[in-house]
Amino acid sequence: MDTLKHPFFEMFDDFVKERGAKNDWTTSTYEKFASVKNHLLAFDKDIQFNDWNEFRLTDYVNYLRAEKKMRNSTIDNQLDFLRWFLRWAVEKGYSENRDFDAFKPKLKTTQKKVIFLTWEELNRLREYPIPESKKYLERVRDVFLFCCFTGLRYSDVFNLRRSDVKSGHIEVTTVKTADSLTIELNNHSKTILDKYKDVIFENDKALPVISNQKMNDYLKELAELAQINEPIRETYYKGNERIDEVTPKYALLGTHAGRRTFICNALSLGIPAQVVMKWTGHSDYKAMKPYIDIADDIKASAMDKFNRL
Protein backbone atom coordinates (compact mmCIF):
# COMPACT_ATOMS: atom_id res chain seq x y z
CA MET A 1 0.00 0.00 0.00
CA ASP A 2 1.26 3.49 -0.87
CA THR A 3 1.73 5.16 2.53
CA LEU A 4 2.49 8.48 0.86
CA LYS A 5 -1.15 8.60 -0.24
CA HIS A 6 -2.16 8.35 3.40
CA PRO A 7 0.49 10.13 5.49
CA PHE A 8 0.29 9.07 9.13
CA PHE A 9 -0.08 12.50 10.76
CA GLU A 10 -2.48 13.86 8.12
CA MET A 11 -4.69 10.83 8.69
CA PHE A 12 -4.40 11.38 12.46
CA ASP A 13 -5.89 14.86 11.98
CA ASP A 14 -8.70 13.36 9.87
CA PHE A 15 -9.33 10.75 12.58
CA VAL A 16 -9.63 13.44 15.28
CA LYS A 17 -11.92 15.55 13.08
CA GLU A 18 -14.21 12.64 12.18
CA ARG A 19 -14.36 10.92 15.61
CA GLY A 20 -14.68 14.24 17.40
CA ALA A 21 -17.70 15.26 15.32
CA LYS A 22 -19.30 11.81 15.48
CA ASN A 23 -18.84 11.34 19.25
CA ASP A 24 -19.34 15.02 20.16
CA TRP A 25 -15.99 15.25 21.95
CA THR A 26 -15.51 17.79 24.71
CA THR A 27 -12.65 20.32 24.66
CA SER A 28 -10.70 18.14 27.10
CA THR A 29 -10.90 15.12 24.75
CA TYR A 30 -9.56 17.23 21.86
CA GLU A 31 -6.75 18.42 24.16
CA LYS A 32 -5.99 14.79 25.07
CA PHE A 33 -5.59 13.83 21.40
CA ALA A 34 -3.50 16.94 20.67
CA SER A 35 -1.18 15.69 23.42
CA VAL A 36 -1.16 12.15 21.89
CA LYS A 37 -0.14 13.65 18.53
CA ASN A 38 2.63 15.71 20.15
CA HIS A 39 4.11 12.60 21.80
CA LEU A 40 4.03 10.73 18.48
CA LEU A 41 5.67 13.63 16.63
CA ALA A 42 8.39 13.92 19.25
CA PHE A 43 8.98 10.15 19.00
CA ASP A 44 9.31 10.08 15.20
CA LYS A 45 7.99 12.89 13.00
CA ASP A 46 8.44 10.74 9.85
CA ILE A 47 6.70 7.58 11.04
CA GLN A 48 4.16 5.88 8.75
CA PHE A 49 1.52 3.18 9.23
CA ASN A 50 3.76 0.32 8.03
CA ASP A 51 6.44 1.19 10.60
CA TRP A 52 4.30 0.17 13.59
CA ASN A 53 5.59 -3.39 14.05
CA GLU A 54 6.24 -4.99 17.45
CA PHE A 55 9.78 -3.55 17.68
CA ARG A 56 8.65 0.01 16.91
CA LEU A 57 5.75 -0.23 19.35
CA THR A 58 8.21 -1.44 22.01
CA ASP A 59 10.48 1.50 21.16
CA TYR A 60 7.53 3.83 21.70
CA VAL A 61 6.76 2.34 25.12
CA ASN A 62 10.42 2.74 26.12
CA TYR A 63 10.43 6.32 24.80
CA LEU A 64 7.35 7.28 26.85
CA ARG A 65 8.89 5.70 29.95
CA ALA A 66 12.46 7.03 29.62
CA GLU A 67 12.01 10.39 27.86
CA LYS A 68 8.54 11.41 28.99
CA LYS A 69 8.90 9.83 32.47
CA MET A 70 5.39 8.37 32.25
CA ARG A 71 3.87 5.95 34.73
CA ASN A 72 2.83 2.55 33.38
CA SER A 73 -0.86 3.44 33.69
CA THR A 74 -0.32 6.59 31.57
CA ILE A 75 1.61 4.59 28.94
CA ASP A 76 -1.31 2.13 28.87
CA ASN A 77 -3.66 5.02 28.09
CA GLN A 78 -1.37 6.36 25.35
CA LEU A 79 -1.27 2.90 23.71
CA ASP A 80 -5.07 2.66 23.86
CA PHE A 81 -5.39 5.99 22.02
CA LEU A 82 -2.81 4.91 19.41
CA ARG A 83 -4.56 1.53 18.87
CA TRP A 84 -7.89 3.29 18.40
CA PHE A 85 -6.38 5.42 15.63
CA LEU A 86 -4.53 2.50 13.97
CA ARG A 87 -7.71 0.38 14.04
CA TRP A 88 -9.66 3.23 12.44
CA ALA A 89 -6.98 3.52 9.70
CA VAL A 90 -7.32 -0.21 8.90
CA GLU A 91 -11.14 0.08 8.77
CA LYS A 92 -10.81 3.05 6.40
CA GLY A 93 -8.41 1.14 4.13
CA TYR A 94 -5.50 3.52 4.83
CA SER A 95 -3.38 0.75 6.33
CA GLU A 96 -3.15 -3.05 6.27
CA ASN A 97 -0.80 -3.29 9.24
CA ARG A 98 -2.51 -4.97 12.21
CA ASP A 99 0.58 -5.68 14.34
CA PHE A 100 -0.86 -3.43 17.05
CA ASP A 101 -3.60 -6.05 17.71
CA ALA A 102 -1.08 -8.57 19.03
CA PHE A 103 1.00 -6.02 20.93
CA LYS A 104 0.22 -6.41 24.62
CA PRO A 105 3.19 -5.34 26.76
CA LYS A 106 3.13 -6.45 30.39
CA LEU A 107 2.92 -3.16 32.23
CA LYS A 108 2.42 -3.48 35.97
CA THR A 109 -0.37 -1.17 37.09
CA THR A 110 -2.38 -0.68 40.27
CA GLN A 111 -5.98 0.41 40.71
CA LYS A 112 -6.23 4.16 41.17
CA LYS A 113 -7.22 5.31 44.66
CA VAL A 114 -10.73 6.73 44.94
CA ILE A 115 -10.35 10.13 46.60
CA PHE A 116 -13.50 11.14 48.50
CA LEU A 117 -14.51 12.84 51.75
CA THR A 118 -15.94 10.87 54.65
CA TRP A 119 -19.02 12.30 56.43
CA GLU A 120 -16.73 13.64 59.15
CA GLU A 121 -14.45 15.38 56.62
CA LEU A 122 -17.43 16.67 54.65
CA ASN A 123 -18.86 18.28 57.79
CA ARG A 124 -15.46 19.71 58.72
CA LEU A 125 -15.19 21.33 55.29
CA ARG A 126 -18.79 22.57 55.44
CA GLU A 127 -18.49 24.10 58.90
CA TYR A 128 -15.01 25.59 58.52
CA PRO A 129 -15.18 29.36 59.21
CA ILE A 130 -13.64 30.91 56.07
CA PRO A 131 -11.46 33.94 57.01
CA GLU A 132 -12.54 37.40 55.79
CA SER A 133 -9.43 37.59 53.60
CA LYS A 134 -10.41 34.40 51.74
CA LYS A 135 -14.11 34.96 51.01
CA TYR A 136 -13.51 33.86 47.39
CA LEU A 137 -13.42 30.30 48.77
CA GLU A 138 -17.07 30.45 49.88
CA ARG A 139 -18.60 30.07 46.44
CA VAL A 140 -16.11 27.32 45.56
CA ARG A 141 -17.17 25.46 48.70
CA ASP A 142 -20.87 25.85 47.87
CA VAL A 143 -20.45 24.48 44.35
CA PHE A 144 -18.29 21.58 45.60
CA LEU A 145 -20.80 20.73 48.36
CA PHE A 146 -23.58 20.79 45.75
CA CYS A 147 -21.65 18.10 43.82
CA CYS A 148 -21.18 16.15 47.08
CA PHE A 149 -24.96 16.16 47.66
CA THR A 150 -26.13 15.52 44.07
CA GLY A 151 -23.37 13.44 42.44
CA LEU A 152 -23.02 15.90 39.53
CA ARG A 153 -19.79 16.10 37.54
CA TYR A 154 -18.07 19.49 37.22
CA SER A 155 -19.22 19.81 33.56
CA ASP A 156 -22.86 19.32 34.59
CA VAL A 157 -22.87 21.70 37.54
CA PHE A 158 -21.13 24.24 35.25
CA ASN A 159 -23.96 23.72 32.74
CA LEU A 160 -26.81 23.81 35.29
CA ARG A 161 -29.40 26.46 34.41
CA ARG A 162 -32.24 27.78 36.56
CA SER A 163 -34.66 26.15 34.11
CA ASP A 164 -33.18 22.75 35.11
CA VAL A 165 -34.23 23.31 38.72
CA LYS A 166 -37.72 21.95 39.34
CA SER A 167 -39.78 21.60 42.50
CA GLY A 168 -37.87 19.06 44.61
CA HIS A 169 -35.49 17.87 41.85
CA ILE A 170 -33.16 18.88 39.04
CA GLU A 171 -33.27 17.60 35.46
CA VAL A 172 -29.92 17.26 33.71
CA THR A 173 -28.67 15.99 30.36
CA THR A 174 -25.06 15.10 31.12
CA VAL A 175 -22.31 16.65 29.00
CA LYS A 176 -20.08 13.57 29.03
CA THR A 177 -22.59 10.82 28.22
CA ALA A 178 -25.79 12.67 27.15
CA ASP A 179 -27.80 10.76 29.79
CA SER A 180 -31.05 12.37 30.93
CA LEU A 181 -31.07 12.31 34.72
CA THR A 182 -33.60 13.32 37.34
CA ILE A 183 -31.89 13.94 40.67
CA GLU A 184 -33.99 14.57 43.74
CA LEU A 185 -32.89 17.46 45.96
CA ASN A 186 -32.12 16.85 49.64
CA ASN A 187 -32.06 19.62 52.27
CA HIS A 188 -28.34 20.26 51.70
CA SER A 189 -28.48 20.70 47.91
CA LYS A 190 -31.74 22.69 48.17
CA THR A 191 -30.21 25.13 50.69
CA ILE A 192 -27.30 25.84 48.32
CA LEU A 193 -29.64 26.53 45.37
CA ASP A 194 -31.84 28.76 47.57
CA LYS A 195 -28.80 30.78 48.65
CA TYR A 196 -28.19 31.86 45.03
CA LYS A 197 -31.74 31.96 43.67
CA ASP A 198 -31.83 35.79 43.56
CA VAL A 199 -28.25 36.23 42.32
CA ILE A 200 -27.96 36.77 38.58
CA PHE A 201 -25.27 34.79 36.74
CA GLU A 202 -24.51 34.84 33.01
CA ASN A 203 -26.44 32.41 30.79
CA ASP A 204 -28.99 32.05 33.59
CA LYS A 205 -26.72 29.65 35.47
CA ALA A 206 -28.01 28.31 38.77
CA LEU A 207 -24.67 28.46 40.62
CA PRO A 208 -21.43 30.53 40.60
CA VAL A 209 -19.17 27.99 38.89
CA ILE A 210 -15.67 29.14 37.95
CA SER A 211 -13.20 27.32 35.63
CA ASN A 212 -12.31 23.74 36.54
CA GLN A 213 -8.60 24.50 36.95
CA LYS A 214 -9.22 27.49 39.24
CA MET A 215 -11.79 25.54 41.24
CA ASN A 216 -9.35 22.65 41.73
CA ASP A 217 -6.69 25.07 43.02
CA TYR A 218 -9.07 26.80 45.44
CA LEU A 219 -10.48 23.47 46.61
CA LYS A 220 -7.01 22.32 47.66
CA GLU A 221 -6.48 25.63 49.47
CA LEU A 222 -9.82 25.34 51.28
CA ALA A 223 -9.29 21.69 52.24
CA GLU A 224 -5.82 22.45 53.59
CA LEU A 225 -7.27 25.25 55.76
CA ALA A 226 -9.99 22.88 56.99
CA GLN A 227 -7.26 20.33 57.82
CA ILE A 228 -8.44 17.59 55.47
CA ASN A 229 -4.98 16.11 55.80
CA GLU A 230 -5.33 12.35 56.18
CA PRO A 231 -2.17 10.83 54.61
CA ILE A 232 -3.05 8.95 51.42
CA ARG A 233 -0.62 6.37 50.09
CA GLU A 234 -0.58 5.92 46.33
CA THR A 235 1.36 3.17 44.59
CA TYR A 236 2.31 3.21 40.93
CA TYR A 237 4.92 1.70 38.62
CA LYS A 238 7.46 3.10 36.19
CA GLY A 239 8.69 0.04 34.31
CA ASN A 240 9.28 -2.53 37.05
CA GLU A 241 10.07 0.12 39.66
CA ARG A 242 7.39 0.37 42.32
CA ILE A 243 6.90 3.90 43.66
CA ASP A 244 5.00 4.69 46.85
CA GLU A 245 3.97 8.26 47.52
CA VAL A 246 2.24 9.57 50.63
CA THR A 247 0.31 12.81 50.14
CA PRO A 248 -2.12 14.70 52.40
CA LYS A 249 -5.67 14.27 51.14
CA TYR A 250 -6.22 17.99 50.52
CA ALA A 251 -3.47 17.97 47.84
CA LEU A 252 -5.34 15.25 45.89
CA LEU A 253 -8.77 16.90 46.00
CA GLY A 254 -10.36 18.07 42.76
CA THR A 255 -13.89 18.78 41.57
CA HIS A 256 -14.49 15.10 40.72
CA ALA A 257 -14.06 14.21 44.40
CA GLY A 258 -17.52 15.75 44.91
CA ARG A 259 -19.17 13.08 42.75
CA ARG A 260 -17.11 10.32 44.40
CA THR A 261 -18.02 11.64 47.85
CA PHE A 262 -21.71 11.49 46.95
CA ILE A 263 -21.47 7.90 45.68
CA CYS A 264 -19.40 6.56 48.61
CA ASN A 265 -21.52 8.21 51.25
CA ALA A 266 -24.82 7.28 49.59
CA LEU A 267 -23.77 3.60 49.47
CA SER A 268 -22.47 3.63 53.04
CA LEU A 269 -25.84 5.06 54.18
CA GLY A 270 -27.38 1.89 52.77
CA ILE A 271 -28.94 3.40 49.63
CA PRO A 272 -29.05 0.53 47.06
CA ALA A 273 -26.46 0.70 44.26
CA GLN A 274 -29.15 0.61 41.55
CA VAL A 275 -30.75 3.75 43.03
CA VAL A 276 -27.39 5.56 43.21
CA MET A 277 -26.73 4.55 39.59
CA LYS A 278 -30.03 6.19 38.53
CA TRP A 279 -28.78 9.47 40.03
CA THR A 280 -25.25 9.27 38.65
CA GLY A 281 -26.00 7.77 35.22
CA HIS A 282 -23.64 4.80 35.72
CA SER A 283 -24.89 2.03 33.45
CA ASP A 284 -23.00 -1.00 34.81
CA TYR A 285 -21.86 -2.38 38.14
CA LYS A 286 -18.25 -2.61 36.97
CA ALA A 287 -17.82 1.17 37.29
CA MET A 288 -19.55 1.08 40.69
CA LYS A 289 -17.49 -1.78 42.14
CA PRO A 290 -14.64 0.35 43.61
CA TYR A 291 -17.26 2.48 45.38
CA ILE A 292 -19.17 -0.56 46.67
CA ASP A 293 -15.91 -1.96 48.08
CA ILE A 294 -15.27 1.33 49.91
CA ALA A 295 -18.84 1.38 51.28
CA ASP A 296 -18.33 -2.19 52.57
CA ASP A 297 -15.16 -1.06 54.37
CA ILE A 298 -17.03 1.89 55.91
CA LYS A 299 -19.82 -0.43 57.07
CA ALA A 300 -17.32 -2.88 58.59
CA SER A 301 -15.66 -0.13 60.62
CA ALA A 302 -19.09 1.28 61.59
CA MET A 303 -20.01 -2.11 63.11
CA ASP A 304 -16.99 -1.73 65.38
CA LYS A 305 -18.81 1.15 67.11
CA PHE A 306 -20.99 -1.45 68.88
CA ASN A 307 -17.84 -2.81 70.52
CA ARG A 308 -17.28 0.53 72.22
CA LEU A 309 -20.67 0.56 73.97
UniProtKB/TrEMBL annotation:
GO biological process terms on file: DNA integration; DNA recombination
InterPro entries per record: DNA_brk_join_enz (IPR011010), Integrase-like_cat_sf (IPR013762), Integrase_catalytic (IPR002104), Integrase_recombinase_N (IPR010998), SAM-like_dom (IPR025269), Tyrosine_recombinase_XerCD (IPR050090)
Swiss-Prot/TrEMBL keywords: DNA recombination, DNA-binding
Record domain Tyr recombinase: where: 112-304
The UniProt record lists the keyword Transferase: no
Family assignment from sequence similarity: Belongs to the 'phage' integrase family.
Name of this protein: Tyrosine recombinase XerC
Lineage: unclassified sequences, metagenomes, organismal metagenomes
